[in-house]
Amino acid sequence: MSITIAKSLDLKGLSCPLPIIKTAKAMKELAPGELLEAFATDPGAVPDFKAWAQTTGNPLVESGESGGVFHFVLRKKEI
Amino acid sequence: MSVTMERPPFTEAAPTIADKKPELVDRMVIFAWSGELDKVWPTLILATTAAAMGKETTIFFTFWGLFPLVKNEVRITGDNWMQKMLSLMNRGGDKHLKLSKMNFVGAGPAMMNHLAKQHRVASPHELMEIAIEMGVHLVPCQMTMDMMGLKRSDLIDGIDEPAGATKALADAQGAITLFI
């Protein structure tokens, strides 16, 4: 499995619902199996990214926090 | 002397909603009845988020809820003095929304907009544009348009054709429904 990130999003400073809206838009441009990483500072993004991944079927393959910045890696689902 | 204590039996944490994996509903319909800032805002946040979650989303704008769809530059609407008076006292447009409480003749919304900008929360106007861009169906209530004297040309571009309660309820079949 390749670990190349196809697209990186800077969502730092943005509040709900913009991080998820920008993520959903960016994911549309990815091919199935490609990875998207996102960086956010809104603590609400943590449960929101998990919920978005669960309901849309695009797996959240990695998430974490360092220095107040949350990062997420999502994989575009196979059709 | 030894003391033995009765311990309650070990119980596992209650499952969360996510663990239950409820059947996903792929559509949402919001009945937007209120034209107040503090109701229109969450309506647009929920609608754009539902669209971002891949749901086919519809907002049915009725009664006071119709006024946020009026173009911001349109001032007086209606054909008779009552409808004109109504538009004068209840200005339409997503940039002229009032708070349901602490409005203080517009000072409340001004402060709220300032705080929103500071925290980089998208404004109702921006969210309306995002909703249209994401394909959210914005449906004005035909009956309200007739009664309040609002013409299709008074309303913003990018919205759906006006419809009635039957169309709105038909769309709501099997969808997540909210009345705000």
Notes on the protein architecture:
The complex is a heterodimer of chains A (79) and B (180). By secondary structure, chain A is an alpha+beta fold. Chain A has a single domain, classed as Translation Initiation Factor IF3 (2-Layer Sandwich), CATH 3.30.110.40. Chain A is built from 2 helices and 4 strands; from the N terminus they run βαβαββ. Chain A has helices at residues 18-28, 45-56, and strands at 5-11, 35-40, 60-66, 69-75. Chain A has a 4-stranded mixed sheet with strand order 1-2-4-3, with helices on one face. In chain A, strand 3 (60-66) and strand 4 form a beta hairpin. The longest helix of chain A has 12 residues, at 45-56. Chain A is globular. With 180 residues, chain B is of the alpha/beta class. Chain B has a single domain (26-179), classed as DsrEFH-like (Hypothetical Protein Ychn, Chain: A, 3-Layer(aba) Sandwich). Chain B has 7 helices and 4 strands; from the N terminus they run H-E-H-E-H-H-H-E-H-H-E. Chain B has helices at 17-20, 37-52, 81-89, 107-118, 124-133, 142-148, 165-172, and strands spanning 27-32, 56-61, 137-140, 176-179. A 4-stranded parallel sheet of chain B has the order 3-2-1-4, sandwiched between helices. In chain B, strand 1 (27-32), helix 2 (37-52) and strand 2 (56-61) form a beta-alpha-beta unit. The relative contact order of chain B is 0.21. The model of chain B has no long low-confidence stretch (mean pLDDT 91). The interface between A and B is medium-sized, with 17 and 16 residues.
Biggest interface and which pair forms it? A-B, 17 and 16 residues
Shape of chain B: globular
Low-confidence stretches of chain A: none
- Any idea how many domains of chain B? 1
Throw out a few tags for this protein.
heterodimer; A: 79 residues; alpha+beta; Translation Initiation Factor IF3; four-stranded mixed β-sheet; 4 strands; B: 180 residues; alpha/beta; Hypothetical Protein Ychn, Chain: A; 7 helices; 37% helix
Gist of the model:
The complex is a heterodimer of chains A (79) and B (180). Chain A has 79 residues and is α+β, with helices and mostly antiparallel strands. Chain A has two helices and four strands; from the N terminus they run βαβαββ.
